[in-house]
Amino acid sequence: MKKKVHIYFNRWFSVAYHYMNLIRNNADGLEVKLFGTHPDPRHMSLQACDHAETEPALKGMEYVEFCVEFCRKHEIDVFIPRLHMLDIARHLDLFEEIGTRVVVCRDTGLLEMLMEKDHFYKSVEKTGVMVIPDYEVVNDAEGFKRAYDRLTALGHRVCFKPTNSEGGVGFRIIDDTRDPLEELFGVSTRLVSFRDAYQALGTVHEFPNLMVMEHLPGLEYSIDCFASKEGELLAAVPRRKAGGRLRLLERNEELLAIANNVARTYRIPYNFNIQMKYNGDTPKLLEINPRMSGGLHVTCLSGVNFPYLAVKEALGGEVGPLAPEYDILASHIEQPMRMADWS
Q: Measured on CA atoms in the order 304, 127, 288, 249, is the torsion positive or negative?
């Protein structure tokens, strides 16, 4: 007879190692068995698993069917997806038929909008829940030049990023004061001259959508949020970079109010993350990730076990009231470990 709750992570980032251990070391004493899949059998995320398998390179419905079969085979109670999250959300009925609860936004229209940054920016413009940077979406070199000229005329330094990328992938800051020779002998950089960017983009007739936007020079925050499956906000913790590896879990009332406004307006369930950056005294939206953030394990030092609470909420447990501790200065160090080989 199965006694432990079976929890499955598909292809995640390396920090899922921390999420899994936070779930395992929960305050309720709930016994769990952790499952994972990843194309790399030696990936760090799998090192916290009790059972792991190599994930095939599939897309669309084929990938969904792989996940359904994995959940059926291993009697998964809770599935926490990252890769192909939208495809999985569109077929939740297949998981529900086998008794697997999926920690994902059920509103696929909202989920799709959150994953396409320009679509979500348009929504925020209408709702007015927070301030967005000046921006334009372009897909050819001439459009890029026009957007750059307009934004610089407004007095902005300019940056750009693909509309559907995660983290810092594809993010560049335009800087025409760079010294290419100095950079060649120095550390890698996200700076690029307008000329180099324009020439590179001009090598194709059309490219995937880019957001060309004002660069925000102020403090950067990630607001880690946890909500009920109905989207009621239960906890929010602003986390900011405080120099080097330092992170501050800060009681910032302005950002906490924004988190509450976002939750009331969009009803995003489970874990989500609002990334904002200041320009002067004004915090402006970068993006919202409808999943656990890359630094969530640091935010859990607030006393709120965000990954486990998502599991508890999915299982219908009583979550609540939550009282995060704020104004905590945190950091991290590397630690050697012996690797499990799931190949």
A: negative
